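Standup notes
- DV: blocked on the single-chain target, sequence here:
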Amino acid sequence: MAENRFRAPGLRPKPAAKAEADPERQIAFQTGISAESRGAALLVAKGFRILARRWKSPVGEIDIVARRRHLLLFVEVKARHNLDQAAEAVTERQRQRIIAAADAFLATYPDPSVHDIRFDAILVAPGKTPQHIEGAFEA
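- DV (later): unblocked, structure below
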């Protein structure tokens, strides 16, 4: 109890630091960041300007928001072991959340010069060139 007498009254010991995050989650996070970077680079090479990455709203997140002239893209990036698995990973529930997040983005940043909006996907797999699926789904 000797350590207590040197502590100021009313102070409690600090809780132990949180354990490191799960290594598998850390790897998945880094894989996602890398895939999004590859996807953004592909879009830039196609003449798009990246407006936002990992744009978050209360209703969902958009991996990449990009624009070329009057076209605005909302892009979902999926990284898996192969491109087929990546394509299957865009679920209906995710599509609905992306559409809701896109509505929130448009409400936050209205731009009358945007004439077309498209929902694309970029599929990423190790050793493969990222695959850009234009119009992967519709609102």
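- Follow-up: DSSP finds three helices and five strands in the chain.
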